[in-house]
C-alpha cells in the first residue's frame, strides 16, 4: 500500500511540476507576445475613434452652419451678406466633400499601381503571358472607370481663384437625365 501511495505521490508531484512549467510558459507568452499585440490593437482603436470623432465634429459644424442658413434663408429680399455666406458655405462643403474622396482615391490608385507592378513581375518571371494580358485588360478597365469618374463632375463657372460659384457645379448624370439644378 505504501508503495502505491509513494508512486501516486511521485506522479502527482511530477504532474504539478509540468503544470507549473506550462503556466510559466503561458504567462511568458501572455506578457511577451499577447500583451504588446493587445496594446497595439487598443491604440489603433483609440486612433480610429479619435479620427471618427474629428470627422463627426466637422459634420456637426457643417450641419449647424446649414441650420443657421435655413433660419435666414426665408426672407424675401436677400442681402449681399446672405449671398456671400451662402456662397462660402457651398464652397466649403464642396471642398470638404471632394478633398477626403480625392485623398482616398489617390491612396487606392497608388496601392493598385504598386500591386499591379508586383503582380506583373511575378507573372513575367513565371512566363505567364495570358495572365499578363488579363492584368493589362483589367488595368485598362480601371483607367476607363477613373476617366469616367473625372468627367462626371463638371465645373461650369468659377471665380478668379478657380473655385466654383454657387449653383454652378453639376454632375454629368444630372444633365444627361434631363434634370435641372
From TrEMBL:
GO terms for cellular component: DNA-directed RNA polymerase complex. PANTHER family: PROTEIN ALTERED PHOSPHATE STARVATION RESPONSE 1, RNA POLYMERASE SUBUNIT BETA, PUTATIVE (DUF630 AND DUF632)-RELATED. Residues 125-152 form a coiled coil. The keyword Transcription applies. This is DNA-directed RNA polymerase subunit beta. InterPro entries: DUF632. The lineage of its organism: Eukaryota, Viridiplantae, Streptophyta, Embryophyta, Tracheophyta. The keyword Transcription applies. Keywords: Coiled coil, DNA-directed RNA polymerase, Transcription. Residues 2-99 form the DUF632 domain. It comes from Salvia divinorum.
Amino acid at each position: 500500500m505504501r508503495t502505491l501511495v509513494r508512486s501516486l505521490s511521485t506522479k502527482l508531484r511530477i504532474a504539478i511540476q509540468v503544470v507549473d512549467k506550462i503556466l510559466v510558459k503561458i504567462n511568458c507568452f501572455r506578457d511577451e507576445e499577447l500583451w504588446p499585440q493587445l496594446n497595439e490593437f487598443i491604440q489603433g482603436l483609440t486612433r480610429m475613434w479619435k479620427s471618427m470623432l474629428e470627422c463627426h465634429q466637422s459634420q456637426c459644424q457643417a450641419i449647424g452652419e446649414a441650420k443657421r442658413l435655413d433660419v435666414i434663408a426665408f426672407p424675401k429680399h436677400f442681402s449681399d451678406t446672405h449671398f456671400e455666406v451662402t456662397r462660402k458655405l457651398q464652397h466649403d462643403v464642396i471642398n470638404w466633400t471632394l478633398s477626403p474622396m480625392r485623398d482616398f482615391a489617390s491612396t487606392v490608385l497608388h496601392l493598385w499601381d504598386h500591386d499591379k507592378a508586383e503582380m506583373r513581375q511575378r507573372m513575367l518571371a513565371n512566363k505567364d503571358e495570358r495572365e499578363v494580358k488579363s492584368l493589362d485588360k483589367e488595368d485598362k478597365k480601371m483607367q476607363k472607370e477613373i476617366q469616367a469618374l473625372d468627367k462626371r463632375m463638371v465645373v461650369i463657372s468659377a471665380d478668379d481663384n478657380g473655385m466654383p460659384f454657387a449653383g454652378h457645379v453639376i454632375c454629368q448624370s444630372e444633365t444627361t437625365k434631363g434634370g435641372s439644378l
